[in-house]
Amino acid sequence: MTILVTGGAGFIGGNFVLDWLAESDETVVNVDKLTYAGNLETLKSVQENTAHIFVKADIGDREAIGRLLQEHQPRAVVNFAAESHVDRSIDGPGDFIQTNVVGTFNLLESVRGYWGSLSDDARAGFRFLHVSTDEVYGTLGPKDDAFKESNPYEPNSPYSASKAASDHLVRAWHHTYGLPVLTTNCSNNYGPYHFPEKLIPLVILNAIAGKQLPIYGDGQQVRDWLYVKDHCSAIRAVLQGGRLGETYNVGGWNEKPNLDVVKAICAILDELKPRADGKSYADQITFVKDRPGHDRRYAIDARKLEKELGWKPAQTFETGIRKTVEWYLDNTEWTSNVQSGAYLQWVEKNYADRDQ
Ligand code: NAD
Ligand code: DAU
Predict the structure, then answer these.
(1) Cα-flanking dihedrals φ and ψ of residue 279, to 5°?
(2) Does 94 fall in a domain?
(3) What is the pLDDT of residue 355?
(4) CA 238, 244, 247 angle in degrees (round to 5)?
(5) How far apart are CA 223 and CA 243, in angstroms?
(6) Cβ of residue 334 lying under 6 Å from some atom of ligand 2
């Protein structure tokens, strides 16, 4: 048996592929365009593994994807491929529309063509799992209930709007064409192999490099943090037992204001790698101009997934963030390789006009 994963050289897709190969002997065809966020270094340990077939391709390339599907006959497709960074979507939304909306449309069409060519048994067993985000639900007030699957979609950024559009396409391909789809909407992930344009890895690497730790606005925006390996186990559970056409929210019950997250990282670094001058890394915290349209609070109600499929996260925020800091301290080769010229240009652009 074989599954096909898209975006498997990125943060979550990469972790998913590594975990999949560690836990099963089923082949993974890993299709990734290798944008700035795709990194083959993440997959170094499975380079020689014959159960891992990496192919550089765009999800929007119908010919390439159609050929791969016919060649490998996967029993499932898991779609991680996306433009994923909110700040970049504000700076330039075009790539987000192209990959997240048009790319998902083309992928659905390729998959629909392949699915239609399968035998009755294979058609019945086939799954298309679309990996999405809690940001499609918009923003919450401090006392609002956490997002349920029944919440209306109210995306606020070009990124979340493009993900919302892709979720709607996936839903429509199920209702209209009967494509056997599943959708997951997850909260903020963190953990190994996270590209350092995102808050947690950025703060860890800036701290040890003696740089500022930029906090947007007042730092009181709340995110619900989930250790990436727990997201991967949730996706495996939904792929195995999720009801067709359903969506499942995935979250860690770990709501934290950004400032608390940054202070927690500083406290762990103070213990594991104290600054030479004896001061705390928290002294490097700098408040900078806010992100336009910044969502104030996300929180996920993951009870449907827990009740129907028995999934629970294995890590608390405290255990997960410590593992993460340790991983970044131990994997300096990976971190220095991802901090390439293109990465440095982005950092300069994103933070240059943020007055303190
Ligand atoms: P990422 O940016 O780290 O990785 C995305 C991967 O997709 C990269 O390897 C990139 O090369 C690839 N890619 C981009 N465009 C492509 C295209 N057109 N064709 C093929 N490959 C392409 O993203 P991530 O953080 O790993 O997120 C993965 C998925 O999970 C995304 O769909 C994202 O919306 C969703 N998600 C992310 C989070 C999070 O906290 N990071 C939370 C919930 C949901
Ligand atoms: O909620 C799920 C989403 O989480 C995913 O769908 C996205 O793909 C993923 O990137 C993430 O989006 P966020 O915008 O929440 O993540 P980011 O790490 O960019 O920012 C987390 C919070 O920290 C957010 O409130 C903005 C803030 N922030 C971010 C950066 C990069 C800062 O205060 N300073 C920073 O330098």
Answers:
(1) -85, 170
(2) yes
(3) 66
(4) 60
(5) 28
(6) no
Q: What is the CATH number of the domain that holds 29?
A: 3.40.50.720
68-93: average pLDDT: 98
The number of distinct structural domains making up the chain is 1
Q: What's the pTM?
A: 0.98
Range of the domain at 61: 2-191+227-252+293-314
pLDDT mean across residues, the chain: 97
Does the beta carbon of 86 sit less than 6 angstroms from any atom of ligand 2? yes
- The pLDDT of residue 119 is 98
What type of residue sits at position 183?
Answer: T
Q: Which of 32, 134, 224, 301 is catalytic?
A: 134
List residues near ligand 1 (CB under 6 A): 6-7, 9-13, 32-35, 37-38, 58-60, 80-84, 99, 103, 131, 133, 163, 186, 188-189, 195
pLDDT one-digit tens code per residue, 285-333 = 999 999 999 999 999 999 999 999 999 999 999 999 999 999 999 999 9
The Cα–Cα gap between 201 and 204 comes to 5
